[in-house]
Automatic annotation (TrEMBL):
Source organism phylogeny: Eukaryota, Viridiplantae, Streptophyta, Embryophyta, Tracheophyta
Keyword Cell cycle attributed: no
Entry keyword set: DNA damage, DNA repair, Nucleus
Keyword Repeat found: no
Protein name: DNA repair protein RAD4
All residue ranges annotated as the Rad4 beta-hairpin domain in the record: 579-630, 632-698, 705-779
SUPFAM superfamilies (alphabetical): Cysteine proteinases (SSF54001)
Xref: Pfam families: BHD_1 (PF10403), BHD_2 (PF10404), BHD_3 (PF10405), Rad4 (PF03835)
Gene Ontology biological-process entries: mismatch repair; nucleotide-excision repair
Biased composition (Polar residues): 26-39, 80-106, 318-328
Biased composition (Basic residues): 348-357
Region (Disordered): 1-107, 318-388, 835-856
Superkingdom field: Eukaryota
Example of a GO cellular component annotation carried by this entry: cytoplasm
Length: 907
DNA sequence: TTGTCATATCGAACTTTGATCCCT
DNA sequence: CAGGGATCTTTGTTCGATATGACA
């Protein structure tokens, strides 16, 4: 039975649940394999339902399946799970059409269940008419009617994500995070490769090698090194090698590589020079919110390979849509409709982006080849020309990006304005060129490349600089773009490329540390896009230790700051940053801000206490620290938390109770209620936590359990137990207490909703602690007795059924013998033979033994009872000693030799 | 372009302490 | 006739979060 309370607990403990599973002592079924399976199943199910969502929109579809089942018309019905279920009219042996979705191993009974259980949407299907002649339509084309033509479907159906979809999105998010952490560690360890480090050192000009001897590393001393790296290594888009180790070696050889590889090389170089260096990466992870990928987070789709098609295919198919789709796609109407309706908006959006100049950069993404390949695959061979033009476009963009980054290096002024920091004046000319090309090209080549929000700084290094002062700090070094100490620019640059800066993780020594705070000024914007921090912290905890262990003192030993202090100082720095976020300028940001609060955005059950200090003003409204926001509850609610109100506390807030609650009960009083609802019973008094104290219930005295006015104890938690009492949550235990005449109270543990009302749920009893052992012992004894009794009953029933079975066999044989002479007498002789072998048993011997023993050793007991069956006109005779009885029970089983038995209770 | 506001919608939380019939 | 067990049915409201669109 699921009580509301339990359900609530379950929902609240989702985070911990995962943690406990992770640590191995979770639920019984919480093995890693099971957990994974559950997650994967959800995902697959989700995928299936997503695919069919388009179909679901229509009422029902019919299609001709000539190849599959010639001459038979099938009605495709799509159930809520996305499985296509076919009914072949007039044919019983129809089988599910083997479409892509749905589970092929689905058994037939299940299928029937699905058909029975699913809510069929009523469709105006003429074929369902029994008078309908099937042959008439066999060769006719099927017309599919859309409710509105694709061109006019402007308004998107607003469908909000369900809880399940959210859960799946979160699972994907988590899994993706783990993968990206794994990737980061892989790269980090590649940066430690001594061969690569040595090779890099060998390339370094001698003047830069002096850095090896540098005692106090400063930001300025890094500049020539970074400039050298920037001028010697260049960005290439694709990578050929599959292993990162090989890829980085190749990048080292060719002086070209993906941004990821180059960033790794820079890290390796810094490490070769004995700098404490981390490899830092933005984890561009799949969105935590369902369906966010397709609208605002295309990079995530890109990373996952999920959005790749949705972005690239549309661009290409847009032009060929008419020619390709009409012939092939008859079934997946919904999907095509969706694409068709979405394509224009996307294209326009991308054009918008381009116009605003945000497509300045090249794709530095490692996954770009995937995108390109998929583009190629999706493209028609005939559209090869457009691909070429795409290449030209891409080259242009690359050139543009390089010039842009070069310009950035020279004049990296601190500018919060995204556009101005990214598009320097020198980069305008290639941008114009690109625009011109785009203008000249027909729309079909369009934006396949520019659509991707690429070019965001994704990888860089952090070098620990002791500098002139004694404290030192981690310095952002983006060698690929030749930016040093530009941590404040990262957020803007990422935002310009529509990349969310949700997770920035620094890797070192196989460990990892979340350093998002360093780069993120507006935490409130990303907070809701990050996973449950409990889980994330638990994941990072061991990695953080590894990381801090690795970054200790690899630099010169002369610095004053010790390694653990270094970690501590950085933690403090990040913490400080977290606590000193600037006040947002828009009011809505205060709604869910973790640091600040406006009174107007407080919820019904919240209050400011104490009301101050005022940290500032936003549009004239005072801003208070979020820490002053306190939750309010009713007296009863606090009781559940194990708290009670202090004496003489007045409610800090009084809410009007909803009128409608009483409406149903007192229909006559409607008008009165509406007019004046503020009565003593019409209000809810709310109290803050500061008005409460630990619950102090009357303690048990003289073996009497203090009960509430309902004669029970509400056991919301252990805290709610009166002192000196224990909760014994066992079934039927109240009977023991009753029997022993020990005072007890039923333990109510929650409510269950049935018949539209809440029903209390009880679980065991509450008794005084001194009786605990007595009751438990008696309970164990009683349960044992009950168990034995149940066993005895089961066995007696088994025996009885054996008797009945064998009797009926014998009877049947006898009838056969009598009325069907000559037909297979063999079985009878077998049975008789069996009987004969047991004939030496004396029936009176058996009854002296307990029945349970008989049943175990000699289940059938046919020898005793079968013989009399052959006698005609049998009357049951219950011998006085032929009874079985259980010790301590007044029930006796009387048994006739024929097998008939009856239970009687002796008075 | 961004912020604000209104509106719509969904999910979550909260609410809260049986009645009746049938069999033994 | 008492007592125990099975069965009945599956609320309704409010609030918060979020998406969307209009407008400044």
């Amino acid at each position: 039975m699921k009580t509301r309370n339990q359900a609530k607990q379950k929902s609240q403990s989702t985070g911990e649940d995962d943690m406990s599973r992770k640590s191995g002592h979770g639920t019984k079924t919480g093995t890693l394999a099971n957990t994974s399976q559950v997650g994967v199943n959800k995902f697959l199910k989700q995928a299936g339902s997503r695919r069919s969502r388009g179909l679901k929109k229509q009422d029902s579809y019919t299609l001709n399946c000539d190849s599959a089942d010639k001459g038979k018309e099938k009605h495709v019905k799509v159930d809520s799970n996305g499985q296509n279920i076919l009914e072949a009219s007039g044919s019983k042996n129809s089988s599910p059409l083997n479409t892509n979705d749905g589970s092929p191993q689905q058994a037939k009974p299940e299928l029937e269940d699905v058909m029975a259980d699913s809510d069929w949407e009523d469709g105006s299907n003429p074929n369902s008419n029994s008078e309908y002649n099937h042959s008439d339509l066999i060769n006719k084309d099927i017309t599919i009617e859309f409710e509105s033509s694709p061109g006019t479907t402007k308004r998107k159906p607003i469908r909000r994500a369900s809880a399940e979809e959210k859960e799946v999105a979160e699972l994907v998010h988590r899994a993706h995070l783990l993968c990206l952490i794994g990737r980061g560690r892989l790269i980090d360890s590649a940066c430690d490769d001594p061969l690569i480090q040595a090779a890099l050192l060998s390339l370094l000009p001698s003047n830069l090698l002096k850095l090896l001897e540098a005692t106090n590393l400063t930001v300025d001393s890094l500049t020539p090194l970074v400039n050298w790296f920037h001028s010697n290594f260049h960005v290439r888009i694709s990578t050929i090698e599959k292993s990162f180790q090989l890829a980085i070696s190749r990048a080292l050889e060719t002086h070209e590589g993906t941004p990821e590889e180059l960033a790794a090389l820079s890290v390796a170089l810094f490490r070769a020079l004995n700098f404490s260096t981390r490899f830092v990466s933005i984890l561009d992870v799949a969105s935590l919110k369902p369906d966010a990928d397709k609208c605002d987070d295309m990079s995530e789709g890109r990373k996952l390979g999920k959005g790749v098609f949705s972005s690239s295919t549309i661009m290409v198919t847009q032009s060929n849509e008419a020619s390709t789709s009409s012939g092939k796609h008859t079934a997946p109407i919904g999907a095509d409709t969706k694409i068709a309706s979405e394509a224009p908006t996307k294209a326009s959006r991308q054009r918008k982006i381009k116009k605003s100049g945000q497509s300045r950069t090249i794709s530095r993404d490692t996954d770009s080849p995937i995108v390109d390949q998929s583009n190629e695959k999706k493209m028609d061979p005939s559209s090869k020309g457009s691909k070429r033009r795409g290449d030209i476009e891409f080259e242009m963009q690359m050139e543009m990006a390089l010039s842009a980054t070069a310009a950035q290096t020279s004049e990296c002024n601190i500018d919060n304005d995204v556009k101005s920091s990214n598009i320097s004046s020198s980069s305008l000319s290639p941008f114009k060129r690109l625009k011109k090309i785009k203008f000249e090209e027909s729309q079909e080549i369009s934006t396949a490349f520019g659509s991707r929000k690429s070019g965001a700084p994704m990888y860089w290094a952090e070098v620990y600089c002791t500098g002139d002062n004694s404290t030192g700090k981690w310095v952002h070094v983006d060698a690929v773009n030749a930016i040093i100490d530009g941590e404040h620019k990262v957020e803007a640059a990422a935002a310009a490329c529509k990349t969310n800066l949700r997770y920035v993780v620094a890797f070192a020594g196989q460990g990892a540390k979340d350093v998002t705070r360093r780069y993120c000024a507006k935490w409130y914007k990303i907070a809701s896009h990050r996973v449950n921090s409990t889980w994330w912290d638990a994941v990072l905890l061991p990695l953080k230790e590894l990381e801090s262990g690795a970054t200790e003192g690899t630099h010169t030993m002369s610095n004053n700051v010790k390694s653990d202090e270094r970690t501590y100082l950085e933690d403090m720095e990040l913490e400080t940053k977290a606590l000193t976020e600037p006040l947002p300028t828009n009011q809505q940001a205060y709604k869910s801000h973790h640091l600040y609060a406006l009174e107007r955005w407080l919820t019904k059950y919240q209050i400011l206490h104490p009301k101050g200090p005022i940290l500032g003003f936003c549009s004239g409204h005072p801003v208070y620290p979020r820490a002053c926001v306190q939750m309010l509850h009713t007296k009863e609610r606090w009781m559940r938390e194990g708290l009670q109100l202090k004496v003489n506390e007045l409610p800090v807030k009084v809410l009007k109770r909803s009128i409608k609650v009483n409406k149903g009960k007192v229909p006559e009083a409607d008008e009165d209620d509406e007019n004046d609802s503020v009565g003593p019973g019409g209000t809810v008094d709310l109290f803050g936590k500061w008005q409460t104290e630990p619950l102090c219930l009357p303690s048990a005295e003289n073996g009497i359990v203090p009960k509430n006015d309902r004669g029970q104890v509400d056991v919301w938690s252990e805290k709610c137990l009166p002192p000196g009492t224990v909760h014994l949550g066992f079934p039927r235990i109240f009977a023991i207490a009753k029997k022993l005449k020990i005072d007890y109270a039923p333990a109510m543990v929650g409510f269950d909703f049935r018949n539209g009302r809440s029903i209390p749920v009880y679980n065991g009893i509450v008794v005084c602690s001194e009786f605990k052992n007595t009751i438990l012992e008696a309970y164990a004894e009683e349960e044992e007795r009950r168990g034995a009794e149940e066993r005895r009953k089961n066995e007696a029933q088994a025996i009885s059924r054996w008797y009945q079975l064998l009797s009926s066999i014998v009877t049947r044989q006898r009838l056969n013998n009598r009325y069907a002479e000559g037909i297979s007498t063999q079985p009878l002789s077998d049975i008789q033979k069996t009987n004969d072998t047991f004939h030496h048993h004396d029936p009176s011997e058996d009854v002296t033994e307990p029945i349970s023993d008989q049943a175990n050793e000699d289940v059938g007991q046919p020898d005793v009872v079968l013989r009399p069956l052959f006698e005609e006109d049998h009357e049951h005779v219950f011998l006085t000693n032929d009874t079985g009885s259980n010790v301590g029970s007044s029930i006796r089983t009387k048994r006739c030799q024929c097998g008939f038995s009856i239970e009687v209770e002796e008075l």
